[in-house]
Amino acid sequence: MNLSHLRGILTYVPEFRDKTFVIALDGAVIAHENFSHVVLDLAVLRSLNIRVVVVHGIGWQLTQAAKQSHFTPSNIDGTGVTDRPTLELAIQVANHVTHQILEALTSCDLRACYANAITAYPYGILRGVDQEFTGKVEKVDVSFLRDLLSHQIIPVLPPLGFDGEGKTFRVNSDGVALAVAEALGATKIIFLCSYAGIERSGRLIRQLPVTEAESWLKKDRPTLEPHLRSKLEHAVRACRRGVSRVHIVDGRVNEALLTEVFSREGTGTMIYADEYESIRPANKKDVRVILDLIRESMEVEELAYRSREDVANRITDYYVFELDRTVVGCVALHSYPETGQGEIACLHVARGHENKGLGRKLVSFAENVARSRGLRQVFALSTQAYTFFQQKMGFREETPQILPESRRKRYEESGRKSKILVKDLTG
Ligand SMILES: CC(C)(COP(=O)(O)OP(=O)(O)OC[C@H]1O[C@@H](n2cnc3c(N)ncnc32)[C@H](O)[C@@H]1OP(=O)(O)O)[C@@H](O)C(=O)NCCC(=O)NCCS
Prior knowledge:
Keywords: Acyltransferase, Transferase. With 427 residues, the protein is an alpha/beta fold. The protein folds into 2 domains: 269 residues, Acetylglutamate kinase-like (Carbamate kinase, 3-Layer(aba) Sandwich), CATH 3.40.1160; 146 residues, Gcn5-related N-acetyltransferase (GNAT) (Aminopeptidase), CATH 3.40.630. Helices cover 40% and strands 25% of the residues. The chain contains 15 helices and 23 strands. Strands 3-8-2-1-11-15-16-14 form an 8-stranded mixed β-sheet, with helices on both faces. The chain has a 7-stranded mixed β-sheet with strand order 17-18-19-20-21-23-22, sandwiched between helices. Helix 4 crosses helix 5, helix 7 packs parallel to helix 9 and helix 8 crosses helix 9. It is elongated, with a radius of gyration of 24 Å. It starts with a helix and ends with a strand.
């Protein structure tokens, strides 16, 4: 990367400012001589106000430590049975690796700390076999991580978790990265590994839509190497749960991380969710689902009251956001062809799914529908989310005069005194 790349990087700065990237480091990358360069790359991300969370593995170090002590661990990556001696060694190794990362970050003047943010429960008995100290991530302490990030501190998470009684469990680091990214509503997970990315017939795949990755996992599962299978499975789940980009990058290559983030071509494999594929037109069966979703918001007057008939009669105007076959958001676009305007209405995101970008996606989607219908302007009426429209979606406040006449009449009759937010559509 040279000075001329700086201009290229600058185009990404507004897009990534204040966004969260989860950087998942394989143990082998931390042991590699390029690791000091990886840390410099993290310093660049921080200098651009990107919030960085580091999750690390210990597979390579655990293998080395076991070899040195002539010990055979019951598993290396936190996915099989973890017996007591393997857990003890994993704790020692994990502490050492976390310390190594903290040392390296500190040497670049980056503030960082070990974050005990994972609650894990035992995996239990699988096909009759007790997985002993292998755990699964149950909960992520989101407010703790958010506090650290808001104080410009990089949280570093090892592949370990505690249960409610303080017992330690070994967890898989890919699983930690996924859980943390989902909980924080991260923009990206970047897996830094000791291979180039995902290859097919000897060719590196640069970009892989999540639907394609899913069909590989279905068709070719037995032929995929376990480490690639794990990365692909976690990438697919991440994309399905709102983390729209997952990158698999060779952490042994100088500047691979920055090139992946700040260039169109990248260096590794990017698995991506089509931003809008989770949004579909609503159908008759969704009427009840939509009403259940918005009931509370109607009660507290965030949304205007709508009866079952109101929704049913205009159901073709509605769109729903579906995650894992559950509707978690909705929006409607009512057209006023006589004035070339569209109303974005009934925008709602279910509690528990907020702050993951769903609201923004629903509004952008409705804007695109309006464009495709040849409308030149959209408006929204809001009592409690007007700053969302202004600050996040680029709407401006206007007077009722801007509304189509029929709509203005209803606006005045309702007495809700909603703010009127407007956006001109271009392109
Ligand atoms: C408004 C709403 C749709 C946002 O959905 P969301 O999925 O949480 O939004 P996103 O994740 O895309 O964006 C979150 C950002 O918007 C901000 N935001 C969310 N709700 C907001 C509100 N009511 N007012 C101002 N800002 C808001 C968040 O603080 C966050 O800011 P950040 O990115 O700087 O951290 C959701 O909160 C909701 O359903 N509200 C109740 C119904 C409502 O008021 N609908 C609008 C009627 S027209």
